[in-house]
Amino acid sequence: MAKQSIFGRIQTLVRANVNALLDQAEDPQKMLDQLVRDYSNSIADAESAIAETIGNLRLLERDHQEDVQAAAEWGNKALAASRKGDELRAGGNVAEADKFDNLAKIALQRQITAEGEAKASAPTIAAQTEVVDKLKDGLNGMKTKLEQLKAKRNELTARAKVAEAQNKVHDAVKSIDVLDPTSELGRFEDKIRREEAIAAGKQELAASSIDAQFNALEDVGELTEVEARLAALKVGGPQRAAIDAPSPDQV
């Protein structure tokens, strides 16, 4: 009963604390640290309760041992009184012998009483000893769980820090993603592409103007030849115009 009462109370307390921490949804590291503190406090409460139980058991054992010793002492006193009575009776002193015999009877009665008390307390001591042993085992189990909890706390805290760092790196990389058309770099690249297109257009336009100029020069050459032949025709006739007409290379 003592074992169930102690550990039942502790389990209820720990469960309530865990549920409260989870409901609050605080920082994971703070929550785990608080859980370790609460569990440590529960172990301290268990140690106090178990120590009290052990103390009561030791008192029972001491009383039992005293009863056993008292029974032995009263038995020795009864034997001594009986021997003294026998000695006096053998000497003819019947009155004194009866007196010591009566003392022996009183001692025997007290011996029986002490033996009865020792016998009555024995089952209680055995039961309490079993309870104390189980409580000690339970306490050791709690201490082992506490070490596991601390190790798990350290592991989860480390994992939380790694996850936080990974999220920060991911967010940083995402913010400078050059493939993102909505990013600053994307808009800057679009601007450069437009400038390059304008420059290419100007070059194409300039090339077209030069071609037009060369075509105009060819047209001027043809007109010059016509004028020359016309002048020759007026002076010497058709044959003269053909002879005097400059060749295209001379124009």
Automatic annotation (TrEMBL):
InterPro entries: PspA_VIPP1. Signal peptide: none annotated. The keyword 4Fe-4S does not apply. Keywords: Coiled coil. The keyword Zinc does not apply. It comes from the Bacteria. Residues 132-166 form a coiled coil. Belongs to the PspA/Vipp/IM30 family. PANTHER family: MEMBRANE-ASSOCIATED PROTEIN VIPP1, CHLOROPLASTIC (PTHR31088), PHAGE SHOCK PROTEIN A (PTHR31088:SF6). This is Phage shock protein A (PspA) family protein. It comes from Microbacterium enclense.
